[in-house]
């Protein structure tokens, strides 16, 4: 059986120059609500600057972005953002590999708890995270506020 590695897919750190391709992938990914001001080029570039070792892309043999997973930390807890895999590569383990890379980075700096926000109507995303061993938190309600 051919694996994604055999097909020339490789994983590397995300850089700001990946933004346009990554954003296009996010737009094509069901359940990715991109309305936040944090999803601009500047917002993602800042996240990459502050978390250079925990943000990854998978690129195909031609260098095109086919998957993303961004990890960020406040120094106490880790968070995952924009975990997305192009439709033709879903189910091949690329997403799991990306998040495992982030887990390794977080563990190396002493992070022991990770959070993720999944949009309520993103059933496919919820199923993915449940399969990854994540649990919902019925005891909290998420608020946000734009400055």
CATH superfamily: Gcn5-related N-acetyltransferase (GNAT)
CATH architecture label name: 3-Layer(aba) Sandwich
Structural class: alpha+beta
Biggest sheet statistics = 5 strands, mixed
| CATH topology type | Aminopeptidase
Which whole number gives the mean pLDDT? 92
How are the strands ordered across the major sheet?
1-2-3-4-5
* Termini separation: 50 Å
Summarize the structure in words.
The chain has 147 residues and is of the alpha+beta class. The chain is built from 4 helices and 5 strands; from the N terminus they run E-H-H-E-E-E-H-E-H. The model has no long low-confidence stretch (mean pLDDT 92). It has a single domain (10-131), classed as Gcn5-related N-acetyltransferase (GNAT) (Aminopeptidase), CATH 3.40.630.30.
């Amino acid at each position: 059986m051919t694996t994604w590695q055999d097909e020339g897919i490789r994983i590397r750190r995300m850089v700001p120059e990946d933004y346009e391709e990554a954003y296009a992938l996010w737009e094509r990914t069901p359940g990715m609500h991109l309305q936040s001001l944090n999803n601009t080029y500047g917002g993602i570039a800042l996240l990459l600057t502050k978390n250079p070792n925990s943000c990854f892309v998978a690129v195909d043999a031609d260098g095109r972005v086919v998957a993303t997973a961004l990890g960020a930390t406040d120094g106490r807890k880790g968070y995952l953002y924009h975990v997305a895999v192009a439709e033709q590569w879903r189910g091949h383990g690329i997403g799991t590999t990306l998040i495992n890379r982030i887990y390794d980075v977080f563990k190396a700096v002493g992070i022991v708890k990770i959070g993720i926000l999944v949009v309520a109507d993103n059933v496919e995303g919820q199923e993915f995270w449940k399969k990854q061993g994540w649990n919902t938190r019925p005891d909290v309600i998420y608020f946000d506020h734009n400055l």
